[in-house]
Amino acid sequence: MKKYSSKRSVQILAHIFQEFGIQDIVVSPGSRNAPIAIHFGELENFNCYSIIDERSAGFVALGMAKYTKKPTLLTCTSGSATANYYPAVTEAFYQNIPLLLLTADRPVGFVDIFDGQTIRQKNIFSQHSYGDFELLEDNQPNADEENYKIIKRAVELCINKQGPVHINIPLEEPLYELVSEVPSLPSVILSEQENSYEISHKLVEQWESSKRIMILVGTREASEELDTELSKLADNHSVVVLCEVNSNLNNDNFFHHIDRYIFGFGEKEYRNFAPDLLITIGQNVVSKKVKQFLREAHPKHHWHIDSYWQPDTYYSLTEKITTTAEKFFRAFLPKISTPESEYYHLWEQLKIEKDEKHQSYIQKIGFSDFNLIRLLSSEIPKNYHIHFSNSSVIRYAQLFDFKGYIVHCNRGTSGIEGSTSTAMGYAVKSENPTLLVTGDISFFYDVNGLWNSYLSSTTRIIVMNNSEGNIFKIIPGPRNANENILNEYIATRHKKTAKYLAEHFGFGYIKADEESDLKQVLTTFFRESDRPKILEVQTSSVDNAQILRDYFKEMS
Hints:
By secondary structure, the chain is α/β, with parallel strands linked by helices. The protein is built from 22 helices and 19 strands. Strands 3-2-4-5-7-6 form a six-stranded parallel β-sheet, sandwiched between helices. Helix 2 links the parallel strand 2 and strand 3. Helix 1 runs parallel beside helix 6 and helix 8 crosses helix 12. The longest helix is centred in the middle third of the chain and has 21 residues.
């Protein structure tokens, strides 16, 4: 016979989540949140996942929500466990990924009296959440009615804002009191959402009067509709569409390798290639160079299209268009003309010249981080969804062709923490196999992401191990530091290997440390196996930073 928690607040939580169709909950162990774990674990409508490390659990849930596009629930015990969610909360906030954080707590009167595992949990995420709520304890007047309203509002916020929302849940002892039946609760009436967008005459006039139109697409989910709409503009050579590997766009007439094209721009190029109408879509852009370029460009008009964020990244924002890019262009394109543009051909000529230099350079380069990413762009099976970690890996990926893949990277805050856990959470839910391509520091930093018993045997990880944080040898500033200080405290040179971690967590392991090994290994690495695999590519014998610097010297 099933046994449920006797806590009314927990029963109401589960009921409302079921009404909204929320199914996934990541549980970290503890006693204070035991009523939640027990109750949700007995309900057939919920998929419960045990992830022990709360910092990793936050990113695992984030990865799940990235795939499902639905809120993922997180629950932990009280005290510092709650604080360990914060890195994932910030990432979810800036990526607009729906997380519902259910933090169990001591009763309200226990705060700041030195009771065990008790901190100031209420509003702890308020700087980076879309809502912060605290439930009433069961013994308070009208607790059921008030908690019902609080939880419904929290879920609606999480769905409508597509971001993190926190519900703090004070729970009195006894925590393990169970019942065999749960009283019925009223159904939830769901709110209707507005789906249309009206185009203003002013925007049409600005478009028609602009001769040099650029659309810059940052980090965003794959969208076949947006790809199709923007292709209508690029295919007739009327508009320059700049995008990155994590923009998830595929048309050959888009400009996919921004850094390849604009590296070495000076004042003359800034003037020649600047748009008079800039339209930005999506969120964080990886390329620092394009930010510098567009901040110098001072376009006459700058529209940003996004449902949630309207940042003035380029200090020129004139129109905040609060809707999805798909809705906007669906309504906008029938109202405008799209003549062929000399501006497009200016960029096209630049692209031809730089692509030739790129092809010439890659023929010269042997085994290295640079060459690893080049090989992966052609060797990864097309059914894989790719997660790139931050720092140097995502920057290398910008230089090569990953069109046709679904690509992810945690560019909300651009930190290295959580890349592994996010990819592993995504892999748990994805119907497609998942590949994580990660640097060594990012991989070792988030190693608890492998502490996960729900992974498919098709999950793959490639660790680009150059035995340091090589990004600090690539970007110009750190190279001014004393070499010993740079190596120990900034690049953090090390001799760690993934071999024993793979064994510890039950992954297959393969190592490659020269080009002939790598080519051979990649032919078998993606074949079916009975467990997930890690490929460690050891490149510390190569001056990877110098190879990349020489590449950009060639591009300029």
